Each structure stands twice: as structure tokens, then as C-alpha cells.
Amino acid sequence: MEKIPYKIYLNENEIPKQWYNVRADMKNKPAPLLNPGTLKPMTLEELSGVFCSELAKQELDDTTPYIDIPQEIRDFYKMYRPSPLVRAYCLEKALDTPAKIYYKFEGNNTSGSHKLNSAIAQAYYAKKQGLKGVTTETGAGQWGTALSMACAYLGLDCKVFMVKCSYEQKPFRREVMRTYGADVTPSPSNTTDVGRKILAEHPDTTGSLGCAISEAVEVAVKSEGYRYVLGSVLAQVLLHQSVIGLEAKTAMDKYGIKPDMIIGCAGGGSNLGGLISPFMGEKLRGEADYEIVAVEPASCPSFTRGRYAYDFCDTGMVCPLAKMYSLGSSFIPSANHAGGLRYHGMSSVLSQLYDDGLMTARSVEQTAVFQAAEQFARIEGILPAPESSHAIRAAMDEAIRCKETGEEKTILFGLTGTGYFDMVAYQKFNDGEMSDYIPTDEDLKPGFDALPKVEL
Length: 456
Ligand SMILES: *Cc1c(COP(=O)(O)O)cnc(C)c1O
Description:
The protein is of the alpha/beta class. It has 18 helices and 15 strands. It has helices spanning about 45, 55-60, 70-75, 90-95, 115-130, 140-155, 165-170, 170-180, 195-200, 210-220, 235-255, 270-285, 300-305, 350-355, 365-380, 385-405, 425-430, 440-450, and strands spanning about 5-10, 20, 65-70, 85, 100-105, 135-140, 155-165, 185, 225-230, 260-265, 290-295, 305-310, 320-325, 360-365, 410-415. Helix 12 links the parallel strand 10 (about 260-265) and strand 11. The chain is globular and about 60 Å long.
């Protein structure tokens, strides 16, 4: 057998020509989005008021397994795809494990993460519809950067509401977005009704994703020729991110590699959903079995401690309701939480798969995550994003366990991005000032109590 190279590269023609829609193979479909006013499932017409029409269609489509990727999007993908699948020989050696570790690296573009895969698709459909521009929120900043890049490429206007604490802590992220032509506003701001309302109630707030989403939606709905776009959580985003899993599977199939365990970090669920999609498809169709693991921060544990219920996607309650594992839309992680992965909910698609027992989840504490990040950087050379490092932690833990049991398990994890803009968090870790906080049941109660009462 040919030795497996450090990096398995595909060629340009092997970039997928279609996205894979895992919902088509799900027996239990994810629950529909609900209109927050009527509590009835959102219609195509209602969704098209918020999202571009083609994206609204993709959001509602839970039956078409393969959807063509327009050539223009594939041409853009060629600038940074196919992304490498790396055999982590150095890490295996350092851990002295019989496990075989692979990672799919999505940090190989200026935005530094997988988010560009969906940003270009969403910007493309907005442009095709003849819109002037799009609005969005960004937390850690990767999504805002990716969307700015896509909008610059297509000549679309891009308005980003950036969570205020991030806006202040990551000035360089902000400047990258402005370099790509985006208009960046710290959220909450006094430029929207919902922002002014939140500021009146909480004048000292440093913002949250849920609040920035409300502001971005308000501006989209009130501005002629604008729509709102979202970088995670939605089914359409998981669809676009399926390129990660499709490429990984093509590369592994070339060498006859079958992963036993697939691991991904989970914020809103888009990279994990994308990475696992073709593998989950095989599992759903009964063709193969895989252990699939979501890794989330112990400080924002939507899967491991959340409720599976309809909830608001945003603080201002202007978005459709989604049925998902959620900590409640008022939940905000404690102030010492350094990385991303801070959204209160989780993709409805992954929530249903998790509820059906088709995947598992675990939570990890941030100092352990940064220990893994540091070790990975020193051994494999890549400085990982804190978000990605949740998956690294879980993969390393599994490889260490394999050392004890002698299992030659094949592990695949998603390395979603790089951490160059997260050096304030790395500095805290290097100075020994990073701490962990796991919310108590008491802390979580108000979020659960405020879940909307929805009966279908
Ligand atoms: C946004 C982001 C995540 C988490 O988002 P998901 O939608 O859960 O994938 C993970 N890693 C990086 C680098 C990100 O930018």
C-alpha cells in the first residue's frame, strides 16, 4: 500500500460540482422555522422578505439531495480550494498513539476560516437577484471578514454589525473588513430601533450575537435592495459547507481511508454539519457507520446542557423561531469566555440528528482547549483558532485514549481556521491568567424560563 502523504491535495476539477443536502436523507426532518408573529411555519414568500429568494428556497428544501454549485461560485472556490487534508504524522508521533489522525484545514484563505464557503454563495445569490447589498452580524469577526471578501469580489455593499466587545478587542479584524469595503458598526448601536431599545435597558452592555443579529435584520428589512445573511445555524449554510466534507471524503476514498470517528467544534453547527454531511448521509442510508462528535465550550453548552425546544434566534425576537438545542436567547457566556462558539442555540439540522442519537456531543473547558492549541501549534506548525482548538482537544484526548487501549482508530477532525486575531486570548493563556467558568444550573435557569411557549 502506498504510504499516505502528509497532505492529500485534490485538483481543481475535484472541487465538488454539487452541494449535498443531508436533510434529503433524514427520516425525521428538522422542525420548520416559525413566523414569530403567527407561530406558523415560515412560507417561501415570508422568508424571501428577509433572505434572497434562492437562499430562502434552499432553506426550505429538505428533499433535494444534490444542488448544483453555480460555476461562478466554483470559480471563486478555486482561489482557495480544494483545501488540504492533512495526516497529522507529527502529532501522532508526539502523542505516541496508534491512532491515525487527519484534519481538514479550512484556514487557508485571508478570512482565516471555513466561513468563506458560504459567504461567496450567499453574496452570489444576492448579486444575481439584483440586490444592492447585504447586512449581517459578526461576533469574533471571521464571518464578517469572509462576507466582506465575497462582497468586494462581486461588487456588493456590505453592512456588518460587530459585537461591541469584539469591535474594541479586535481592531485589526475590523480594519480587514473595512479594507474589503465593508461598513462596520459596533453593536448595540443607536442606528437601529432595536439597538436603541437594548441600549436604553442595558447602557453598559458589550453586546451579543443575538443582539447584533436583530440590528442587522432590522436594517435589511427596512432598506430597499438589501437582504440579511447569516454565517451559521441555518440549513442553507450547512448545505454550502458540505464542500468541506465532500472534499474530505473524496481525498480519503482515494487512499481507501475510512474514518472511525469524525470530530468538529460546534458554535452554530455549520463547519461540523458540512464536514460530516456525506458521512452522515451514508449513515442515514445504512451504508456505513461513523462515530460523530460535536465539541462545544463548557461555558456555552447548548448541546450538552441545552433544551430541545423552539426558541428565538436573536435577542430582539425579530427572526423566525427555530427548534434547536438552546440555552435560551437571553443567554450570554460569562465574561471570561475568550473564544467564539458563543451562540445560544444550534443548527436545527444537527439538533434533530443529535436528538435522534446519530451523533454525540461533549464539552471542554477553555484552558484545556488552549493547552491543546499550544501543543498543536508547536507540533503541527499551524496556529489554530480557539474555536478549532475545541476539536483539536477532543481529537487529542481520543488519540491519548487509544494509546492506553492500543486501538488503531482513524480520527478525522475539522481544523476550521487560524488564530492570528485571537492573540489577546493567547496572551491571557500565556500569562497564566486564563480561567474556566462552567455555568451553574442557576445561571442557566433564566434562559430556559424565557423560552417561548410554542405548541404545534
Ligand atoms: C465561526 C467559526 C466556528 C464556529 O461556527 P460553526 O458554524 O459552528 O462552524 C468555528 N471555527 C472558526 C474558525 C470559525 O470562524
